[in-house]
Design goal:
Blueprint (H helix, E strand, L loop, with lengths): L1 H4 L5 H4 L11 H21 L2 H7 L5 H12 L4 H17 L6 H5 L1
């Protein structure tokens, strides 16, 4: 996603949370708001609809960006054990009589 924000010059708004200070000009504020709105539209297009229902209330690309790791990134021992279980359960539920493509569907 950062590859998309870099050409838009939106990384400082979305990832870093840039907010124009009181001393900035009206043109700089308008540019910052424009970048924020373009980034928000981009996120709306990319995020799936069930996730958007959860994230839509945040209304800021920076808030949405900060919310993703808190909700979807799990770095704990329980998560690790759960991933190993999910991986091993695949082999026990696969039947050679069915094709791999049917199994993956």
């Amino acid at each position: 996603m950062l590859l998309v924000f870099d050409p838009l010059k939106a990384k400082h708004v979305v990832v870093d949370g840039y907010i124009p200070s009181l001393g900035t000009t009206a043109a700089e504020k308008a540019t910052s708001e424009n970048i924020a709105m373009q980034s928000l539209l981009l996120l709306i297009q990319v995020i799936s609809q069930p996730i958007m229902f959860q994230e839509g209330r945040l209304r800021s690309p920076y808030n949405i960006w900060q919310h993703f790791p808190r909700i979807y990134f799990k770095d704990s021992s329980i998560s690790f054990v759960n991933e190993i279980y999910a991986f091993h359960s695949l082999s026990s539920s696969f039947s050679p009589s069915r094709s791999m493509s049917k199994f993956l569907d």
